[in-house]
Amino acid sequence: MKIDVIGDVHGCLEELEQLFYKLGYKKEQGIFIHPNQRIPVFVGDITDRGPHSLKVISLVYHMVVIHKRARYVPGNHCNKLYRYFLGNKVQLRHGLETTVAEYNNCSAEMQSTIRHQFITLYEQAPLYLHLPNINAIIAHAGIKESYIGRNDKRVKTFVLYGDITGEFHADGRPVRRDWAKFYKGDNWIIYGHTPVLEPRFLNKTVNIDTGCVFGNQLTAFCLPEEKIVAVPSKQPFVQEKFTTFEVP
């Protein structure tokens, strides 16, 4: 099995298509297929903030659900959009407002289609993906070694939001512990969620959210090759959105 794990897309459709082409995929019947049967895996947060969230939903839905040519795990933005589509009360902020604005500009028929596609995609997705034949776990915000194999509420919170403390930074971002520093497992853990300027490798974990929607790049991590492939973003660069970590 060969996979290409794709970092947080956040509605950046053009960059996603360019990344697929750079990885060697061909566009056939409206989806991207690799001639060597490689499988793309989306690490969550496919919508919000970027310009084409609805088109990204449709593409991922068709690749994952209809054609079964890709895999997907949800992120925290996915969870919030899912709750919005269910009719729950959610605040239209932190990027959700851009997806909802796109949605509100659609016809009633298109709204029904998109809503159905996303709800189906989300409900069929695993909380995180364990691929033992290539020693890999894909989880949106990462996962502790002791949580692997579990799907309870505590694990769900960790996988979607990271190792949050319940406290907040001055700008409103939640304070998160650096769980990757303490990981000692043999599986690769590939995650996103926290934008970094370069993929962050630590203890056989790699953060591939390189902040495409904030103007940096869209990144894929290829296994078993352990190779990074990236394309530059077309969005404006926003320096303050990126997290820097102390060198261990």
UniProtKB/TrEMBL annotation:
InterPro entries: Ap4A_hydrolase, Bis(5'-nucleosyl)-tetraP_PrpE, Calcineurin-like_PHP, Metallo-depent_PP-like, MPP_PrpE-like, Ser/Thr-sp_prot-phosphatase
Annotated ranges, domain Calcineurin-like phosphoesterase: 1-196
Domain of life: Bacteria
Catalytic activity annotation: P(1),P(4)-bis(5'-guanosyl) tetraphosphate + H2O = GMP + GTP + 2 H(+)
GO molecular function, one term: nickel cation binding
Keyword Membrane: no
Enzyme Commission identifier(s): 3.6.1.17
GO CC term (a single one): cytoplasm
The protein's required cofactors: Ni(2+)
Keywords per UniProt: GTP-binding, Hydrolase, Nickel, Nucleotide-binding
Function: Asymmetrically hydrolyzes Ap4p to yield AMP and ATP.
Protein family membership: Belongs to the PrpE family.
NCBIfam families named among the record's database cross-references: PRK13625.1 (NF010148)
Full protein name: Bis(5'-nucleosyl)-tetraphosphatase PrpE [asymmetrical]
Gene that this sequence comes from: prpE
